[in-house]
Design goal:
Length: about 300
């Protein structure tokens, strides 16, 4: 078996289903999933070779491929192999009873202030009539850690998805705004790599994940997906089924055939150039060429 180490923020139900159904074994893959604490930590490990691939926000790939002002301060040969999902319920969630007006001068949790989910947060907050200067950003790391912080009252609101939002709702938290309603088309997760040394095995992993996603989207593997969601995300039966329903949601769920569509990339580029512009020496923004077919952002 060929071993591959994948870094993720929230445990991947799709990866677990691919393992349980034999999709990984069919491709001679032994996949180890490692939890990462933040976007910079994930890409630091990816560039160091501690991770072979990453399940990550495509905005991270944009930042580390094109923007020298990224948290690591260097550009890297990172690229997207496949689109995985469109956010899986990604939205701005707040403590029970919170209204948009309550966010003024309130602590709002982010992974880091320059992450893709943070940029989406800024846009959703604007849709609620709030500018970045009106709330206080608190750096809290990965989505599961932000859920813990929200439930503990360490922040008033934060971006949640991938099952974490279901737990928050069960505890009475409210969704103030959803990415699917305001930022579609969007991509929440992609499979990414750095360099080419492990790209063959990573491409086989992408094939397995895309095939598994296709089966789920076609109505299959429901019991397996629900069982994996319950086990990996500690969801009860009701929430596990809601999670599966979310996987099949055409606006926020899994991406068929792993296609990285231009519309979603345009959304991501627009968010970054709006809320975190990075002027290029020759004029314009460093992301202006990201959408070029030959930019190398998307492998193949």
């Amino acid at each position: 078996m060929r071993r591959i180490v994948v870094g993720s923020f929230t445990p991947s139900v799709l990866l677990e289903v691919a393992r349980a159904t034999g999709a990984l074994a069919e491709r001679d893959l032994d996949v180890s999933e490692v939890a990462v604490t933040s976007s910079p930590a994930q890409f630091r490990s990816l560039l160091a070779g501690d991770l072979d691939a990453a399940l990550t926000s495509p905005d991270n790939v944009l930042a580390y491929r094109f923007d020298p002002g990224n948290p690591l301060g260097e550009l890297a040969d990172v690229r997207i192999l496949a689109a995985i999902d469109r956010g899986l319920g990604l939205g701005l969630y707040a403590l029970p009873g919170t209204t948009p007006a309550d966010l003024v001068r309130a602590p709002v949790g982010v992974d880091v202030a320059t992450s893709g989910f943070a940029l989406a947060l800024y846009a959703l907050a604007e849709s609620l009539g709030l500018t970045r200067e009106q709330y206080d950003l608190v750096t809290l790391g990965s989505t599961p850690r932000r859920l813990e912080a929200l439930l503990a009252g360490e922040c008033t609101a934060t971006m949640l998805n991938a099952g974490n939002e279901l737990v928050a709702e069960q505890q009475g938290c409210v969704r103030l705004a959803a990415v699917a309603d305001h930022l579609s088309p969007y991509l929440g997760t992609v499979l990414a790599v750095a360099g080419t040394e492990r790209i063959d095995v990573a491409e086989d992993l992408a094939t397995a994940l895309v095939a598994t996603a296709g089966e789920i989207l076609d109505g299959g593997l429901g019991p397996q997906a629900a069982a994996s969601a319950a086990r990996r995300l500690a969801l009860d039966d009701e929430l596990a089924q809601r999670y599966v329903d979310g996987l099949r949601d055409p606006r926020g769920g899994l991406v068929r055939e792993g296609v990285v569509d231009r519309g979603a990339l345009e959304t991501l580029v627009r968010l970054r150039t709006t809320y975190l512009p990075s002027p290029a020496p020759e004029g314009g923004d460093v992301l202006d060429r990201a959408l070029d077919p030959d930019s190398g952002l998307v492998h193949g």
